Amino acid sequence: MENNFYLKQQMDAIFTAPHTPAGLDFRRTDIPLPKPNQALVKVKAFTVNQGETRTALSTTESYIVGWDFAGIVVKAAEDGSTPKEGTRVFGYIAQGSWAEYLVAPGGLMAEIPEGITDAQAACLPIAGLTALDCLDASGDIQGLRVLITGAAGGVGRFACQLAANAGAKVFAVSRRTELANLLQNPSGIFKDAAEAKAAGEYDIIWDSIGGDTLATALTALSRNGICINYGNSAREFSNINIRSAGWPLHRIKCIWLGREPLFPSTPMLERLAAMVENGSLNTPIDLELPWKSIFTAVNKLLQQQVNGKVVLHVA
């Protein structure tokens, strides 16, 4: 099929719209033309994440929103580096998944096993990869006390499951303690880091909140403990007294998606999909809607009216 075919065709997509009340807008635009190392994917489902949504609603630029996706390859990469045409795939891109079509390199996608739905697959990339990154960066955590902040969030729900499956004693911090009760048999549930600190020390801390939560959590880190930070939902600086926190005895790491050119994500995506397929990892979907209901989905997410992942289906 000739590349010119795509240039003549258009698609619907959700763009940022900085000068409108909603901040988002459906528009017609050209179907993207894939580079030799990219596949063209027909999007079947995508998720709505806090990070991409807040960024989209605060930007002054115009672009197609979206990270996670599940879909079908309609044109494989010319260099053979992606799954073949007709293959169901899931993955993520820097922006552009809230659309009928997208282009992505093979390193940012993986095949969807037969037993997994598009909605389940779309939940895995951003949230699942971040949680799996935390697990891999922590080493062997069997029997260790692991404190997870933001435990009822998108990443937190996956993180708690992965830590528990690895044999850790999981302690959850969530302002919405009623949601934390949905987690997989936590050893403790706390409303904040101060309450968690009062319950003892922790060998591992996975933090998504930053600010005072991170600063307090670090003071509860055990000797030679590891703290992994992967977000700053508090949007605050962390004021840390290095000496009192025992900094020389601790290790702190920061994890952010974005290094894929050096370390492709396909193997990790395949691991996550295998866990879902064998039943050891649950995809906590709370809301599924047609993608034309994006405004409803965004409002519910930002107003904390959902208890899990938000998935939109593209017609």
TrEMBL record:
Enoyl reductase (ER) domain residues: 19-312
GO molecular function: NADPH binding; oxidoreductase activity, acting on NAD(P)H
Domain of life (superkingdom): Bacteria
InterPro entries assigned: ADH-like_N (IPR013154), ER (IPR020843), GroES-like_sf (IPR011032), NAD(P)-bd_dom_sf (IPR036291)
Keyword annotations from UniProtKB, A to Z: NADP, Oxidoreductase
Signal sequence segment: none
Cited SMART domains: PKS_ER
Keyword Oxidoreductase (UniProt): yes
Keyword DNA repair: no
PANTHER family: QUINONE OXIDOREDUCTASE PIG3-RELATED
Name of this protein: Zinc-binding dehydrogenase
Organism: Chitinophaga varians
